[in-house]
Amino acid sequence: MLKSAALFLLVVIFLGACAYQQPKLSSDSVVSSPQSMDVKGEADYWWYARFEMDWSDDNEPDFSKNLIIAHEVISPLLDRYADNISLWRFHRRAAHDAAGHQFSFIFYSTPDIAQAIYDDIDHSVLVDGLLATGDLLAVKLDNVNEPKRAGISATSDKKWSMTIQKSWPYFIMGVSVMWLDLVAQEVDDKALSSNTGIKERLDYYRKVNDRITALWNKEGRHALLHHINGIFGYEPLEIRF
């Protein structure tokens, strides 16, 4: 019991730091194990697609806006390029700094695939609509002619041991797959159409976000934290404040 509580405290601290300093999948989708994925190609690099969200200093960040990007922009890209992306993840953060409120899609692939994905994002009607309404302030894409992040550990926290840095991308991809699948399950595509406006779409995704948050509040402790703790043999964690 004490060990589970310690894990819960650690994860709450971690999530707080990321959040406030911080393929359309089916429920039976399967993620390949690290051994079966070709992640050692010398031509593979990590790439970022950063979506900068509107955030007033007077309000809490609206993280529900991340869902419309994940479900309607990124999920189709994951379907389209599934054979060409060996690792990927999402990152959600909001802080009163230069980066502000950003939702990031981070993926490990070749420069050619990165350029194809960036081209698709550039031509996204939804992205254009969010930019036009001001709900999305900017889309920041890497320069594919200047790849900088080679190697599995290149985007992991440098304060971690190299062992953890090399393994963590598999963990966070699994978390991202699950989260995206929760979004897909909670979205009723019949409730949205090509004629549904941006405001109505965002209102709909706020309700989806509330349902997923409720799932996390009620079931995250056992379904996620308890079972992560179990994988590591219920050993205690070192927590630093």
Task: Annotate the secondary structure layout.
Elements: H1 2-20, E1 45-53, H2 65-80, E2 87-94, E3 101-109, H3 111-122, H4 125-133, E4 136-141, H5 162-186, H6 198-231
Antiparallel strand pairs: 1-3, 1-4, 2-3
Helix pairs in contact: 1-6
Give a short synopsis of this structure.
With 241 residues, the chain is α+β, with helices and mostly antiparallel strands. The protein has six helices and four strands; from the N terminus they run H-E-H-E-E-H-H-E-H-H. The chain is globular.
Description:
This protein is an alpha+beta fold and 241 residues long. The protein has one domain (2-231). Helix content is 48%, strand content 13%. It is built from six helices and four strands. The protein has helices spanning 2-20, 65-80, 111-122, 125-133, 162-186, 198-231, and strands at 45-53, 87-94, 101-109, 136-141. A four-stranded antiparallel β-sheet has the order 2-3-1-4.
Which structural traits does this protein have?
241 residues; four-stranded antiparallel β-sheet; disordered N terminus; alpha+beta
